[in-house]
């Protein structure tokens, strides 16, 4: 009988990516009023707390939690502390649309790391062609701004490098979740790693950025509330998908090519001073083609001669 959980994988993956694509506007808004580490720390602590009512009926025993504490800590280190610490710092150096495009390189990083670190998740011709086409789109989007010619060109290039490092940390977090089978409920695992990673970021922000202002305007609180919600929802969906039998890290991460397209569109629409051009549109077309090229077979009935799902 066909596993309907697997047939819903594309829909859930797209939902998570669409949620993540809204983060660039929210982060750029919140960073006008708070330091990157403090803002990220508060966001992810709130995200972790938002999930408590959902996993409480399935809460693990204290013994089971302590037995998996090291895994939770490592996931929190890569998936929240390092990934989003670097992401928020990078976002202070580049426009929101450009950040969305650079983050779009994350499927390539995930696929390469999964090739070396995951059993049965090797690169093949279709996967390689899709990734290269998507990466070409990201390169066109990034280089179309000619950052080396702008007054802040070196800062933008540094921001791009920092965002690429954050991609690597996120890929390692994905691999940790996929490699280690535990009895912990995915919602609990996500909630715990979000709160621990966020708390570590907040603690680091205190000596580096100082305390937040006593009063903050409503755009900060709106962006914080939305970002906390989307992190709780998107990561929970993603962790659930990563734990499904038959779902591969590299294939699932191909859906993240949606993030730069939607993130750039929202940044152009909502952030002042950001607008599209011919080359950015061409890059987005490459990214969309990469997604279609590789993922359309996911909607077809599986062949009896393949074991992709």
From TrEMBL:
Membrane topology value: Multi-pass membrane protein
Entry keyword annotation includes tRNA-binding: no
Subcellular location: Membrane
Entry keyword set: Membrane, Transmembrane, Transmembrane helix
PROSITE patterns: PROKAR_LIPOPROTEIN (PS51257)
InterPro entries: AA-Vitamin_Transporters, EamA_dom, EmrE-like
Transmembrane segments: 33-56, 68-91, 97-117, 129-148, 154-175, 187-208, 220-242, 254-271, 277-296
Superkingdom per UniProt: Bacteria
Family statement: Belongs to the EamA transporter family.
Protein name: EamA domain-containing protein
């Amino acid at each position: 009988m066909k596993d309907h959980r697997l047939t819903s994988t594309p829909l859930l993956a797209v939902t998570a990516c669409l949620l993540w694509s809204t983060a660039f506007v929210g982060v750029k808004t919140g960073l006008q009023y708070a330091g990157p580490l403090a803002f990220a720390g508060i966001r992810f602590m709130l995200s972790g707390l938002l999930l408590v009512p959902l996993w409480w009926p399935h809460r693990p025993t204290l013994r089971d939690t302590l037995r998996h504490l090291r895994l939770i800590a490592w996931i929190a280190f890569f998936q929240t502390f390092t990934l989003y610490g670097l992401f928020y710092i990078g976002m202070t150096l580049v426009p929101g649309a450009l950040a969305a495009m650079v983050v779009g390189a994350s499927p390539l990083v995930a696929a390469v790391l999964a090739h070396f670190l995951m059993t049965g998740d090797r690169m093949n011709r279709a996967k390689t062609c899709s990734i290269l086409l998507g990466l070409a789109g990201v390169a066109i989007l990034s280089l179309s701004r000619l950052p080396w010619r702008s007054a802040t060109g070196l800062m933008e290039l540094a921001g791009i490098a920092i965002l690429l490092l954050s991609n690597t940390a996120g890929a390692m977090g994905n691999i940790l979740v996929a490699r280690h089978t535990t009895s912990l409920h995915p919602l609990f695992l996500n909630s715990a790693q979000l709160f621990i990673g966020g708390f570590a970021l907040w603690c680091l922000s205190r000596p580096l950025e100082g305390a937040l202002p006593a009063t903050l305007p409503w755009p900060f609180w709106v962006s914080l509330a939305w970002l906390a919600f989307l992190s709780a929802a998107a990561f929970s969906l993603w962790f659930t998908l990563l734990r499904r039998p038959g779902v591969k890290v590299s294939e699932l991460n191909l859906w993240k090519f949606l993030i730069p397209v939607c993130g750039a569109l929202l940044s152009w629409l909502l952030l002042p001073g950001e607008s599209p051009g011919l080359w950015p549109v061409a890059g987005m077309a490459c990214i969309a083609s990469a997604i279609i090229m590789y993922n359309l077979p996911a909607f077809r009935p599986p062949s009896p001669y393949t074991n992709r799902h």
